[in-house]
Amino acid sequence: MILVRDVAIDAGARRLLSDVSFSVQSGDKIGFVGPNGAGKTTLLRALAGLTEPAGGSIVRSGTIGYLSQEAALDDLDDPGVSALERVLMARDIGSIERRMELTRAKMDGSDGAERDRLIRAFGRLDDEFTAMGGYVAKAEAKRFASALGIGADDLEQPVATMSGGQRRRVELARILFAETTTLLLDEPTNHLDLDAKAWLVAYLADYDGGLLIVSHDLPLLDESITSVLAVEGGRIEPFRGNYTYYTQERQRRREQRIRERRQQDAKIERLEAGIRRFKGSTETMARRAHTWETRVRRLSKDLVEVERERKRVALRFPQPARSGRTPISATGLAKAYGHNVVFVDVDVDVDRGERLIIMGLNGAGKTTLLKILAGVEEADLGTIEVGYKAAPGYYAQEHEDITPGVTVLNLMRGVSRLPDRDLRTLLGHFLLADKVDQDAGTLSGGEKTKLALARLVVAGHNVLLLDEPTNNLDPQAKDALLEALKHYEGTLILVSHDTEFVAALNPDRVILMPDGEQAYYDDSMLELVALA
Questions:
Q1: Residue 306 — φ and ψ, nearest 5°?
Q2: Does residue 313 lie in a domain region?
Q3: What is the DSSP letter of 161?
Q4: Rounded to an integer, what is the distance from CA 292 to the centroid of its chain?
Q5: How many domains does the chain have?
Q6: pTM of the full predicted structure?
Q7: What tens digit of pLDDT does each residue of 275-318 get?
Q8: In CATH, what number is assigned to the domain containing residue 448?
Q9: What is the DSSP letter of 440?
Q10: Would you call the peptide bond into 53 cis, given omega within 30 degrees of 0 as the criterion?
């Protein structure tokens, strides 16, 4: 259970939320909604105990599971920990499993008295693991992982070598496996395929504990929640019912406030007209005018607030300089992480102005291939050629180029020589005008996405390599990105699991990973996009 009383949330010197009070109790299923940058992620971190609120109190009881938007794994002490061990650590048996594996490895390389000692140590660890229900829990952990699209081979892979999407699924499996009494989930459907989303919706519907979920996945909100907390003008307004009811009720309440405000304004206008007419007339009418002035002051203090319509992201990629006919090509690419071979013998060639999408199941190497084409990572084998006057720009799904400790404006300065006035104007188009002096590392996931896109825009690239660019974006910002890409005349290479986004963009060709087969795009391939 979580009790929140009069909490204030700040980002740097800026107040995001004020006078926040609510509770998350067993059986509650709450959707937390609002535009990017409204403070949802920051509040969730405070609820999880990772940061302190600027004011008020947060009282927690029971076990809380928190899923972050990021997949940084800051608490991972041993980079060799496998995905399965990472999941098992949620119940304090993962460390025993890890020690058993290390002891077994030492046994293979020892003999005599040392081997006998290691056998006894392994026996004690095995007894402890069994007593804690380790083998039953291990089978349960594998079921969670499988339901979220983590294959048996992936479970044996060191989690530190996984892609961002794989790591995040591992983290979600770990949190669901942890037997929590309250779940705080920040964009849990990012990187999940259709089957995994369906399983997660059903799991959350049957979850007995308290649930607070931040998501732009509207079907998930509709099917998994029974109430909504909506950020409106720096405050939180509660709504009963699912997301569809919230959108209807929010509009009804707004229209009602508009009517009430119009009536108040009309009443004040009539009183002020009377005051102007009678204030300088007879003594009796002047006293009445004075009474009306008192009423006007009282009415003005109690005016119904009507929130302004939300500003919209204004996103437009400037038309870039023309590149050569083949801006990027690659031959015989191969990549492996230790014993995990991601792909071999992949060829890529893309024509100027073409829209190419890289498809494949989770873990097929889509992000790895994109990083290699962008020059962020090196292939183990093969060659890459950047064509004549090609200027590639890479968008990373994990926002690796958003450096903590550097302000938003300084990150823009790092990719452009435009004067600060122009950079501030551009950031305003991305609804980041009030964040220019903020540490970029403290931005929300959606705001980091907007900043990364703003950096691409200002740099004028003629080849865009985008890795899951719609993750964490609110619906309006996603629509703005789609329209901008539709009118972009440069070359586009895309990785995305967003079927609506891909269908609307209508790519020209696809590369199917991990085999690297190339084909012309048609709508029948959307099923594979969803499975990614």
A1: -115, 115
A2: no
A3: G
A4: 53
A5: 2
A6: 0.69
A7: 877 776 777 777 777 787 888 888 787 777 766 665 666 777 77
A8: 3.40.50.300
A9: G
A10: no
